[in-house]
Amino acid sequence: MAKKKMNYSGIGGQAVLEGIMMKNKDQYAVAVRKPDGEIEVEVEHYHGIIHGSKLLDIPFIRGVFQFLDSLILGMRCLNFSASFYEDEEVKETAADKAFRKMFKDKADKVFSGIVMLFSLVLAIGIFMVLPYFVTSLFETYIRSASFMAIIEGVLRIVIFVGYVLSISLMKDIRRVYMYHGAEHKCINCIEKGAPLTVKEVMRSSKQHRRCGTSFLLFVMFVSVVLFFFIRVENPAYRILLRVALIPVIAGISYEIIRLAGKSNNILVRIISAPGMWLQRLTTKEPDESMVEVAIAAVEAVFDWKAYLLETFGYEVDDSWLEEEKADK
């Protein structure tokens, strides 16, 4: 039996607090289910930190900037969704007032930048540097540099999977993972050629090859390979090497995830399998109200009816869609 052809739509997204962000080219939409039950949708443009640069056309280089853009946009969307659920009773401290006085109208952006930088440093410390330090404790007993590199790589992957598993047990994170599942279901629904309705979306898979979870797992695997072949003797240089190679690792991982989203050959399916498996932890089955939010985000930035007509050759009957809504 022939394998189903991949139909790349170009849209991607991210789960946020009680909502979803969907991005299509330079335009993105954040749909949030507000405390009163209504869906708020904000549509904006994000051009990226090197918009228009030819660097975005160079393989392995573009992935670094795409990764940074995803972090910046992700933080922006999270802040927007969180604004609907802020505790109004929390009083502004003297430190908050001083910070706002110092940076004025840019205070929120500066604070978000600090949080993002701190998160990056923490992630590098936990997933890149910590495995090296733990593995180095066994240097006295293990003389093989190759075996040490393998142990470090395995430990890095174990720490990452353990982190994903531990946060998946948190109640609030579980709801984010449900929205994450709704995001994937919407994209899968469109790319398999089905109309974007709640019924069809709920039938779709909650796993997708272009997921950020798969990207991060690729980062772990690629780091194992690079650190196995690229070595230095000085311990300080070893730590520096692990930090310095992060852009290279991100660039390679981006190209792999990009290929996985556009191809369906046997090799791509094999290398995508671990990431798809890990998504069982980072995506949960959403309810219909979450799917409605995801659909609102998609429709704000993507003409899925035109996509189905162009890609699959059929036109969606609006009267049929109205009947389905009425039946619901």
Question: Helix count, per DSSP?
Answer: 13
Q: What structural class should be given to the helix and strand makeup? A: alpha+beta
Which term fits the overall shape? globular
Oligomer: single chain
Structure write-up:
The chain has 328 residues and is α+β, with helices and mostly antiparallel strands. The chain has helices at 62-82, 94-103, 107-136, 145-168, 171-191, 198-203, 212-229, 235-244, 246-262, 266-282, 288-301, 304-312, 318-327; strands spanning 11-16, 19-24, 27-33, 39-45. A four-stranded antiparallel β-sheet has the order 1-2-3-4. Helix 5 (171-191) packs across helix 11. The relative contact order is 0.15.
Explain briefly what this protein structure is.
The protein is an alpha+beta fold and 328 residues long.
Keywords:
alpha+beta; 13 helices; four-stranded antiparallel sheet; 328 residues; globular; 4 strands
Lay out the secondary structure.
Elements: E1 11-16, E2 19-24, E3 27-33, E4 39-45, H1 62-82, H2 94-103, H3 107-136, H4 145-168, H5 171-191, H6 198-203, H7 212-229, H8 235-244, H9 246-262, H10 266-282, H11 288-301, H12 304-312, H13 318-327
Antiparallel strand pairs: 1-2, 2-3, 3-4
Helix pairs in contact: 1-9, 3-4, 4-7, 5-11, 7-9, 7-10
